Structure to design on (203 residues):
């Protein structure tokens, strides 16, 4: 495939996806058909199936693109944090920001309607999540300068798991119960404990 053909194919892919997102937001996922997406995009049914097997695949692609964009922005913002308290607050505030985002709400509802599996299983999301995890570990390394990289990544994984669980509960309204200020203080206690362990290591 020539460069021009690749560019044209990518444009088609993006325009089909944009048409689907528009309809999902306006009509809802269940009330949007592949035929509706094709009509809205201006492409043929054949073009649709050249890029996606099902309507579900379009939704998964849209959701994961949205998640990746948010995770990358979050990764950049971690670099602006300076204290354990800032990190503890950020993890929960950022979880809330994602869950209350209008696009997140609509896509999550659509995913639940069709039981679409979305999250860290997709390669792009997994890669972005890994960079986010490493950025958290890097910040923890500033608080715990004598702690090894593997331990820092383990600590970061604990914090990321708390944030992920908080996000899942907030969106799905099932499972655990999280009181935001309490969770922030719990996270801060964990970080303070790791800092104290690091100090003992230094001694």
């Amino acid at each position: 495939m020539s460069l021009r053909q690749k560019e044209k194919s990518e444009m088609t892919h993006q325009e089909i996806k944009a048409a689907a997102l528009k309809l999902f937001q306006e009509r809802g996922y269940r009330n949007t058909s592949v035929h509706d997406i094709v009509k809205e995009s201006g492409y043929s049914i054949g073009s649709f199936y050249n890029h996606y097997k099902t309507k579900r695949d379009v939704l998964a692609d849209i959701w994961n693109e949205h998640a990746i964009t948010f995770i990358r922005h979050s990764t950049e913002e971690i670099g602006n944090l300076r204290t354990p308290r800032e990190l503890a607050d950020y993890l929960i505030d950022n979880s809330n920001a994602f869950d209350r985002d209008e696009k997140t709400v609509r896509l999550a509802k659509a995913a639940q309607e069709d039981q679409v599996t979305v999250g860290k299983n997709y390669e792009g999301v997994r890669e972005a999540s890994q960079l986010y995890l490493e950025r958290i570990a890097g910040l923890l390394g500033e608080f715990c300068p004598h702690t090894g990289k593997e331990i820092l990544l383990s600590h970061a994984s604990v914090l990321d798991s708390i944030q992920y669980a908080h996000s899942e509960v907030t969106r799905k309204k099932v499972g655990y119960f999280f009181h935001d200020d309490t969770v922030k203080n719990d996270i801060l206690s964990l970080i303070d404990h790791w800092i104290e362990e690091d100090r003992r290591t230094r001694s």
About this structure: The chain is about 80% helix and 0% strand. The chain has a mean pLDDT of 89.
